[in-house]
Design goal:
The chain is of the alpha+beta class and 817 residues long. It folds into 3 domains: 234 residues, Clc chloride channel (Orthogonal Bundle); 236 residues, Clc chloride channel (Orthogonal Bundle), CATH 1.10.3080.10; 155 residues, Roll (CBS-domain), CATH 3.10.580.20. It has 30 helices and 16 strands. The strands form 6 sheets. It has a 4-stranded mixed sheet with strand order 6-8-9-13. Strands 7-10-12 form a 3-stranded mixed sheet. Strands 14-15-16 form a 3-stranded mixed sheet. Helix 8 crosses helix 25, helix 15 crosses helix 24 and helix 15 packs parallel to helix 25. The longest helix is centred in the first third of the chain and has 42 residues. It is elongated and about 110 Å long. The two termini are 35 Å apart. Keywords: Antiport, ATP-binding, CBS domain, Chloride, Endosome, Ion transport, Membrane, Nucleotide-binding, Repeat, Signal, Transmembrane, Transmembrane helix, Transport. Belongs to the chloride channel (TC 2.A.49) family. This is Chloride channel protein.
Length: 817
């Protein structure tokens, strides 16, 4: 007898998914035993339970049919075997075992002929081909979305007469009459008031432009919510909570389908162009994963194995972030840190390749016309100083508080939407929120423009050529400094006007985003969160800048901010604030810093970003450990077992397993004494996902585990393909048929659908260990035994409900298996 306790402790402490080390399965049937160590595994010889008597009235079923063996209907695979029902969890161990068996067969066949060797090479390269296709399609779709959003956003304010498909900026690029001072004005671009009533100024022109701005926004939003509701209900929301759940092993059929891809791409353009407080970055991850799912279905290696498919989806998520932020490395880290559940080293390499191809494709399209991957790429020319760490940390505190406020308010509103009549009117809700947003946003220039343009302006450093109100400083006429080294200057009236406009925009953005995120339209959270932080950071940066200019003799400024020096960069504060708020909402750390670093291209600003990101996470975690995506997962009742959660309660497996005291006994199958009718009745009267198989109901010695879906398919297929299988036929799971009386119906052998190595624990196993096993191995269920006798079963749903109960939460909130 060999005890694996030390190996289990090593498993529980490891960070990598254990399946990454290979192995076809857990091996032979594992039988547990009680001892001083708690529980151990031992390899045992399978007992068939076959009778050995020589009763003359009993004959062998094989001899009765004139054949020494019976047909096993899984010797030849039939459709849908090994698949999973909708809203159920996959069996990671079985998927890994099936992939190992498939790879072993291909390796053995490759030695038989040149053609088989070529097929094995094609199989090995199929993963890289899928990554290439994902990167190309994700990058192309992102470029098309960026171009369409740019055009449709400007369409709310006017139209280009020379080419109506040009945005405002593109229209004036092509004009020969554009001057530098009025580079946003050109004869070819006309506002709606100029086009309709031939007036560009005055109250009537303003009111007409105001009205048409609201009308266009309502049209875009109504079309988007209608398309989502009619054609693809799964196209709504960010998609990241569901992607995290799917990558953990949950099945949501249609969520990554072709219709969802098409509708989400189209409606994403519409909702971003409508001016709602949402972004396209989160939904782009969903779009990229839809691309990954589509290309996976073209290769049997991935289409027939849900575990391998999820490796592709992890890489696709990295490609989505790569094109959303122009950050290939940040995309890989985001997939690893935030969304992936199983991320082996091979997936890391392929994620990197997919992100690279996606970024290269987007760069080739060049949607922004600046040879950059994102609209708000900036470069700063002034280093930061140690004294500035204090305001950076304050921005981190603000980001953590904002994240906590947003999560609590948004979850409360979404829960109200789900539990009241409000949820029955998604179209009306979208129309009302859009109308409120457009009415309030238009008068303020910082809320009227697209959020990406707002962030771009807030990130920018004020150079000599900037015409923004934020750069309206009082210049020294005798200044002869280079353009990139402009000293700190006193703020002019434009800066003070911009400050109170930014303050109003900040309050509006905080409030409206709470009600916008979660509506039945595609809605990302990255850009609105960054906008909130960027506005707060820019105001803090201007305040520090003016403080340093007017009080440069203070001790905190004396050593690094002399008169006439370029000391403070307000755009850097905006960038730090954006990182802090995004980190407070999502609780990202490493990937967030890398994404922000790739946005700016400045290595020396990593420390301020790290300080703000860590501070925001600490502050937010002080009020609750859940990020916005985990909170929405729990709100929807998805069976997501987060690897970040800790379980420290002293409960045992016997406290969680079913059946409990007073409940009906566990529904089981016997190895050779139940008829087809008995099995069908058991399936019909219960809704369990599978049934333990025991020697007999008296001994309750465990043999294996049979999945409900495969039992149904096997019996249905046997009735169609094998003569003599009737309701009275004996179903057996042993290698050899049981001894039956003469003239008995033809028995049905279902051994091939039997899992001979179900995972088992003893009734005295600590739940802390059980939870860790479910996390690390991705189990659907484990069986509870005592001295080899079956006592009960623990499913993933039972584990999640127990954890919720121990955390004083509603255990019934876990709705799926």
């Amino acid at each position: 007898m060999l005890c694996f306790t030390q190996a289990l402790l090593h498993l529980a402490s490891g960070s990598a998914h254990p399946l990454a080390k290979g192995g076809s399965s857990l091996g032979l049937l594992k039988q547990d035993w009680r001892g001083s160590q708690g529980w151990c595994w031992m390899v045992c010889v399978e007992q068939t339970g076959r009778k050995t008597g020589t009763d003359p009235n009993m004959v062998n079923a094989g001899e009765m049919n004139g054949s020494g063996n019976l047909m096993d209907f899984l010797d030849e695979p039939f459709p849908d075997v090994g698949t999973y029902e909708d809203f159920h969890t996959i069996d990671w161990l079985r998927e890994k075992s099936r992939d190992t068996d498939r790879h072993r067969k291909i390796t053995n066949k490759s030695k038989e002929s040149i053609w088989e060797f070529i097929k094995s090479l094609l199989d090995a390269w199929s993963g890289w081909v899928v990554m290439l296709l994902i990167g190309l399609l994700a990058g192309t779709l992102a470029g098309v979305i960026d171009l369409a959003v740019d055009w449709m956003t400007d369409l709310k304010e006017g139209v280009c007469l020379s080419a109506f498909w040009y945005s405002h900026e593109q229209c004036c690029w092509t004009s020969n009459e554009t001057t530098f001072d009025d580079r946003d004005k050109c004869p070819q671009w006309q506002k709606w008031s100029e086009l309709l009533v031939n007036q560009s100024e005055g109250a009537s022109a303003y009111i007409l432009n105001y009205f048409l701005y609201i009308l266009w926004a309502l049209c875009f939003a109504f079309l988007a919510v209608s398309l989502v509701r009619v054609f693809a209900p799964y196209a709504c929301g960010s998609g990241i909570p569901e992607i995290k759940t799917i990558l953990s092993g949950f099945i949501i059929r249609g969520y990554l389908g072709k219709w969802t891809l098409l509708i989400k791409t189209v409606t994403l353009v519409l909702v971003v162009s409508s001016g709602l407080s949402l972004g396209k970055e989160g939904p782009l991850v969903h779009v990229a994963c839809c691309c990954g799912n589509f290309f996976s279905s073209l290769f049997s290696k991935y289409s027939k194995n849900e575990g391998k498919r999820r490796e592709v989806l992890s890489a696709a998520a990295a490609a989505g972030v790569s094109v959303a932020f122009g950050a290939p490395i940040g995309g890989v880290l985001f997939s690893l840190e935030e969304v992936s559940y199983y991320f082996p080293l091979k997936t890391l390499w392929r994620s990197f390749f997919a992100a690279l191809v996606a970024a290269f494709t987007l760069r080739s399209i060049n949607p922004f016309g600046n040879s950059r991957l994102v609209l708000f790429y900036v470069e700063y020319h002034t280093p930061w100083y140690m004294a500035e760490l204090f305001p950076f940390i304050l921005l981190g505190v603000f980001g953590g508080l904002w994240g906590t406020l947003f999560i609590r308010c948004n979850i409360a509103w979404c829960r109200r939407r789900k539990t009241t009549r409000l949820g029955k009117y998604p179209v009306l809700e979208v129309i009302v929120i859009t109308a409120i947003t457009a009415i309030i946003a238009y008068p303020n220039p910082y809320t009227r423009r697209s959020t990406s343009e707002l962030i771009s302006e807030l990130f920018n450093d004020c150079g000599a050529l900037e015409s923004s109100q934020l750069c309206d400083y009082i210049n020294d006429p005798n200044m002869t400094r280079p353009v990139d080294d402009i000293p700190d200057r006193p703020a002019g009236p434009g800066v003070y006007t911009a400050m109170w406009q930014l303050a109003l925009a900040l309050v509006f953005k905080i409030v409206i985003t709470i009600f916008t995120f979660g509506m039945k339209i595609p809605s990302g959270l990255f850009i609105p969160s960054m906008a909130v932080g960027a506005m707060a950071g820019r105001m803090v940066g201007i305040g520090v800048e003016q403080l340093a200019y007017h009080h440069h003799d203070w001790i905190i400024f004396r050593n690094w901010c002399r008169p006439g020096a370029d000391c403070v960069t307000p755009g850097l504060y905006a960038m730090v604030g954006a990182a802090a708020c995004l980190g407070g909402v999502t609780r990202m750390t490493v990937s967030l810093v890398v994404i922000m670093f790739e946005l700016t291209g400045g290595l020396e600003y990593i420390v301020p970003l790290m300080a703000a990101a860590v501070t925001s996470k600490w502050v937010a975690d002080a009020f609750g450990k859940e990020g916005i995506y985990e909170a929405h997962i729990h709100l929807n009742g998805y069976p997501f077992l987060d690897v970040k959660d800790e379980f420290t309660h002293r409960t045992l497996a016997t406290d969680v397993m079913r059946p409990r005291r007073g409940e009906a006994p566990l529904s089981v199958l016997t190895q050779d004494s139940m008829t087809v009718e008995d099995v069908e009745t058991l399936i019909k009267e219960t809704d369990y996902n599978g049934f333990p198989v025991v020697v007999s109901k008296d001994s309750e010695r465990l043999i294996g585990f049979a999945q409900r879906r495969e039992l149904i398919l096997a019996i249905k297929n046997a009735r169609q393909r094998q003569d003599g299988v009737v309701s009275n036929s004996i179903v057996y799971f042993t290698e050899d048929p049981p001894e039956l009386p003469p003239n008995s119906p033809h028995p049905l052998k279902l051994r091939r659908i039997l899992n001979l190595s179900p995972f088992t624990v003893t009734d005295h196993t600590p739940m802390e260990t059980v939870v860790d096993i479910f996390r690390k191995l991705g189990l659907r269920q484990c069986l509870v035994t005592r001295s080899g006798r079956l006592l009960g079963i623990i499913t993933k749903k039972d584990v999640l409900r127990h954890m919720a109960q121990m955390a004083n939460q509603d255990p019934e909130s876990i709705m799926f298996n």
